[in-house]
Amino acid sequence: MSRLIGLVKGFPGHPSHPPLTDVSIGAYTVATAMFILGALDVQRTQMAHGALLALSGGLIVAVPTGLTGLLDWAGIEKRTPARRLATWHLFVMLTATVLFAVTWLLQRPGYINGTVKTTAWIVAIAAELVLAIGGYLGGTIVFAYGSRVTDASDRPMTVKDALAPKLSATEPGPIDASRLPRRR
């Protein structure tokens, strides 16, 4: 079972969660842009349809994105600043997802009659702002705390090894920040 969880989480230095977030974030952002364009009467019917379809794609991919994120969260040491920040990231992203699901429900009638519903584009913009905050927190978990980043001593020496890392029984933990060079 742990091998299956390891496969779902991704390879060392190549976690599954970040590329999945890119799909959802991209779909949500395209949907929001289409909502705004449709509200401005630019190809209103097409934007009403396209926005809901893009939003649907983002919500579908949110399921594996959330699952892989939850697995990553569970792997962060408890009672650490990284875990606290990851918990905030989890709740902020859950809030964004719920807001996008509400947007989908609000826009569904607009899909049928080819209009962009005012409440849908307003909630979509709010959801996009919450999404940006969650993305910032997620980036901090990776870039400041080194979560799911391989330790420098474990980094591959060849491009082939970097592109196709070997699964190990244990995954490297976060980088020890005290070993990183200091900025001047």
Q: Approximately how much helix is present in the residues? A: 55-70%
Secondary structure class reads: mainly alpha
Q: Compute the gyration radius: what is it?
A: 19 Å
Physical arrangement of strands within the biggest beta sheet = 1-2
Percent range for β-strand residues = under 5%
Structural domain tally: 1
User: In one word, what is the shape?
Assistant: elongated
Biggest sheet layout: 2 strands, antiparallel
Unreliable runs, pLDDT <50, ≥5 residues?
A: 171-176
Q: Mind telling me which CATH architecture this is?
A: Up-down Bundle
Measured between the Cα atoms of the first and last residue, the distance is 46 Å
Q: What is the count of DSSP helices, taking H or I runs of 4+ residues? A: 6
As for the CATH topology, it is: Four Helix Bundle (Hemerythrin (Met), subunit A)
Provide the residue-averaged pLDDT: 86
Q: Which series of helices and strands comes N to C?
A: HEEHHHHH
Return the CATH class.
Mainly Alpha
Say how many strands there are.
2
